[in-house]
Write a structure and sequence with these properties.
By secondary structure, the protein is of the alpha/beta class. The chain folds into two domains: 240 residues, Thiolase/Chalcone synthase (Peroxisomal Thiolase, Chain A, domain 1), CATH 3.40.47.10; 150 residues, Peroxisomal Thiolase, Chain A, domain 1 (3-Layer(aba) Sandwich). Helix 10 packs across helix 11.
């Protein structure tokens, strides 16, 4: 069997199907998920820990600041890379390689049998290059800042396309690759761009999502601390407290999530497992402030995504909130959600950062992935670490500290908002074979 771009589906994975409606070419589905989060290195482990209320934040040492709280991933980097490749590449690239390979394996696609010129890699990032630069400058101290000791690997490590480019080299992919700088909205935007390229017919398979290596730069921690926005708590696993009255900032984390995206027609031809169908999305800008969010613009982004999906607010079963644990950030999102969903009494809201901290460029994709199993288990994972709910954070049916069981889940809406006022929303529908 041959897909549109000319690549063959291995016989071991194909199953002959009946005629496929032409409209299936204009629908995009998620058929594989690969991830690394501080509390899980595959979807099953990650989901189990979300339902069990298991957070994973730890203390690490960082240059100039000493001990800080962070979410650290503990995947096996040698599963898909050799030691030499790890030394030459970046942490973000390594996370991306792990997640991309895991996503393809989960999708049961034989990557060797595909036309790799028809595969695209689209990864959202918050920042890239500062980790390498900071560490190189720090290392030069021992050489009295003599730049002849500067790494000759610096340039390829710091170019903005590095994480996606490392994936293409590792997997032999010759189609397009981009990293998309979109602050903390980037994970959603990696998925959106993959979907758009599929609908344009530029590719037949997208690897979309986001990655972050933020914990390896002291500058991120120092900046949040000087803003008064770096979380602290005696118990690291209770430091990230979205919606709690006593929340005091962000826990910086690393992580990654890559999804395989296919046109529905192609997924059906090979009888792929389908996690869900992306039916709506939106991106807009606050045009307001470098850091402070804007509730009205966020509400407009949500409404635009709903309009594209042909849905009303009451059709959304789960809102996966962006809330980072900052005072103003959480409040502005709550104001936006309260406005849009005021007549949606059955909609539930949850949050994932309370478990893993803020994985920056990976956050949108990771948080969406953690909710997708709800289509099958009919359970909404909770927001944890809420002891005293901020009365200003009134959102639809906020699930607090314990999972909520519901009769049916058809639509999940995933919010991701970032600095410089970039907002993104993705809506995924349960796939039922129609």
């Amino acid at each position: 069997m041959t897909m549109r771009g000319g690549h063959d589906i291995p016989s071991s994975t194909r199953k002959e199907a009946g005629p496929i409606e032409k409209s299936h070419d204009s629908r995009v589905v998620i058929t594989g998920i690969g991830l690394s989060a501080p509390n899980g290195n595959n979807l099953s482990e990650y989901r189990h820990n979300l339902l069990a209320g298991k957070a994973s934040i730890e203390k690490i040492e960082t240059h100039y600041m000493g001990e800080v709280l962070a979410g650290v991933c503990h995947f096996d980097p040698l599963k898909y890379q050799k030691k030499k490749e790890l030394r030459r590449g970046t942490r973000a690239g390594s996370i991306a390689i792990y997640c991309a390979n895991e996503a393809v394996a989960d999708s049961r696609l034989d990557i060797a049998g595909l036309d790799k010129s028809r595969v695209g890699v689209y990864l959202g990032i918050t920042e890239h290059g500062n980790v390498e630069t900071e560490n190189e400058v720090f290392g030069l101290k021992q050489y009295n800042y003599d730049v002849k000791y500067w790494s000759h690997h610096h340039n390829p490590r710091t170019v903005a396309n590095n994480p996606a480019g490392e994936v293409t080299m590792n997997m032999g992919i010759t189609g397009p690759h981009y990293t998309l700088g979109a602050a903390c909205a980037a994970g959603n935007i990696g998925l959106i761009h993959g979907l758009q390229m599929l609908l344009l017919g530029e590719i037949d398979l997208a690897l979309g999502g986001g990655v972050s290596e933020s914990i390896h730069t002291f500058g991120v921690f120092a900046s949040f601390k000087n803003e008064g926005a770096l979380a602290s708590h005696d118990n690291p696993n209770r430091a990230c407290r979205p919606f709690d009255r006593d929340r005091n900032g962000i826990v910086v984390s690393e992580g990654g999530c890559v999804c395989t995206l296919e046109r529905l027609s192609d997924a059906l031809r090979r009888s792929a497992t389908i996690y869900g169908e992306i039916v709506g999305y939106a991106i807009n800008s606050d045009a307001f402030d470098f850091i402070l969010p804007h509730a009205q613009r966020q509400a407009e982004c949500v409404r635009l995504a709903l309009k594209k999906a042909g849905l009303s607010p009451a059709d959304i079963d789960i809102i996966s909130s962006h809330a980072t644990g900052t005072q103003q950030g959480d409040l502005q999102e709550c104001l936006a959600l309260a406005e849009v969903f005021k007549d949606a009494p059955q909609t539930h809201t949850n949050n994932t950062k309370s478990y893993i901290g803020h994985t920056m460029g990976a956050a949108g994709a990771l948080e969406l992935a953690g909710n997708l199993p709800s289509f099958n288990d009919h359970t909404v994972h909770p927001t944890i670490n809420i002891d005293n709910l901020d009365p200003r954070c009134t959102v639809p049916n906020l699930v607090i500290n314990h999972p909520a069981n519901v009769d049916r889940i058809d639509h999940i809406m995933n919010n991701s908002f970032g600095m410089l006022g970039i907002n993104s929303v993705v809506i995924v529908r349960r796939y039922e074979g129609r």
